[in-house]
Amino acid sequence: MKLSALLLLACYAAAAPAETLVMGIGDQAFPPYKLGDATLNPRHPGLSVELMQDVSRSCGLALDIRLLPGARLLKELESGDIDAVMMLSYSAERAAYAVYPMKAGKLDEARRLATLSYVLYARKDSELGWDGRQLPNLRRSVGTNTGWSINKDLQKMGIPAETANSVEQNFDKLANRRIDAYAVHESLGDAYLQHHPSLPIRKLEPPISTKPYFLPFSRQYAAQHPRQADCLWNAIARSRDEQLRRRIAAYLDAKD
User: Where's the Solute-binding protein family 3/N-terminal domain (predicted)?
Assistant: First the structure.
């Protein structure tokens, strides 16, 4: 009788649904970390989306993804209507209602989801310069990917941009002198050139912009589920870099 009760209890535990983490993501694509706008690309949802799916499983959580406009995303995190937000940078204003990974009272960048850097690439025989603000000797436009945030950044800097649909198209335009430079996520650009070492392309320094992005939790969720929050942050730190190396090639020319 006692053995039957234990077996029944074990079967019940195995059948019990996993606890759910409600995670918000902005409804705009930011390749390669999230592809698709109001819906996720089923084949290539994004590197960080895949990472969150993996680490949620490892922490025994079911992941409920909500795609929301930016302003609503922050409001629902503040109200506790969602538990966490994927890929949010740190600010003191956000830290008033969102809990970020900390260590010794400081932001723990080791437990970030990703560091997003946009960099410029130019032909090796180009005289183009870059000082972090200006592009001396720029004669043609800078290539970018359609719909990426870098377009607005370049516009604010007064740098003319010309869009294309993929990494491959932009590097082809650069190699054939149809654009003078290409602004793209460093992880994508470096991976593409690693697979095409014969291209006469060089990377310009410094990056146009660099910032760590995190998985912050609502204060309500962090207070009620501190173990789950730590499990996810620690799993992200362990898995992030290896997942990038393993999956980046699949995103070189993935489209939204």
Answer: 27-97
Closest by CA to 244, choosing from 26, 41, 25, 51, is 51
Residue 182: C-alpha distances to residues 132, 204, 239 (Å): 14, 10, 30
Q: Over the stretch 13-24, which tens digit does the pLDDT of each residue have?
A: 444 557 999 999
Q: Are the C-beta atoms of 44 and 105 separated by less than 8 Å? A: no
Q: How far is CA 21 from CA 63, 64, 82, 221, 245, in A?
A: 5, 6, 8, 9, 26
DSSP 33: T
pLDDT at 246: 92
List phi, psi (to 5°) of 141.
-75, 170
CATH number for the segment(s) 20-113+215-253: 3.40.190.10
Query: Is 172 within 8 Å of 165 (Cβ atoms)?
Result: no
Domain boundaries, the chain: 20-113+215-253, 116-211
CATH topology of domain 116-211: D-Maltodextrin-Binding Protein; domain 2 (3.40.190)
Q: Kindly report the length of the chain.
A: 256
Could you tell me where the beta strands, DSSP code E, fall in 124-200? Answer: 142-145, 161-164, 181-185
Q: pLDDT tens-digit profile of 96-112?
A: 999 999 999 999 999 99
